[in-house]
Amino acid sequence: MIVLVGCGSASTPKAETAPSAGSAASATPGATEQIAQLDALLEKASAAPAYSATLTTRTLVANQEVVVMTGKVNFNDGELNGHVDVTTAASGDTPASQVQVVMTREKQYVRNVGTSSQREEWLEVPADGASSIADLTGYGRLLLAQGPEAVKGEETVGTVTATRLSGVVTTEDVRTLEPNLYNRLRTAGVESFECDIWVDGSGRTVRLEQWITMSGYPTHNVMEISEFGSAFEQEAPE
């Protein structure tokens, strides 16, 4: 997930999907070939020139959506750059909030939007690498390494046909894929979690979901990536 606001969380149970004809439980020649093809697609997407996409992440707790982040960012472009809006629901004595974040290669700019027409001034902070997106290709390879049973067949994600990969990921597995998540999981004593990704025909991840129980709370992380386009140079806000 994008570590700017953390991962989503919900008590939503994971939906089970019956294996398709292309996801046999044994390593048949056809299944082995399919895994090789998917691995090649992931490699192709990882090596592709930088591109932009609309990014949406959702955070739910006890089936209640508490954080939503939407925006446009660049992928395959080193440090995260782009812009996002983060909306947080009220919780207890904490009121609802809306924050805008602009990420350039040199700095980050943050401001609270609030509930009125008045907006606070931009707060400027160094771009120290704290904001990043999970290594999506790495997740795909990790799941493919679990064998043919990880390949659940094709599904429709938005308007795109994508192959769903599903499996169990250990905390140690994400040490380099999502360092910030790794630190949180290790602190919470989490050993493993379920993870699904959906890969399109170009090898790009269009959806990522994780089911994690932390501190007694079942969490459900959702990332959706769509509307792919050319990379752009994010400018500082005026």
UniProtKB/TrEMBL annotation:
Gene3D superfamilies: 2.50.20.20. Keywords: Cell membrane, Membrane. The keyword Transit peptide does not apply. It is found in: Cell envelope. Its main location: other. It holds the Pfam family LppX_LprAFG. The keyword Nucleus does not apply. Belongs to the LppX/LprAFG lipoprotein family. This is LppX_LprAFG lipoprotein.
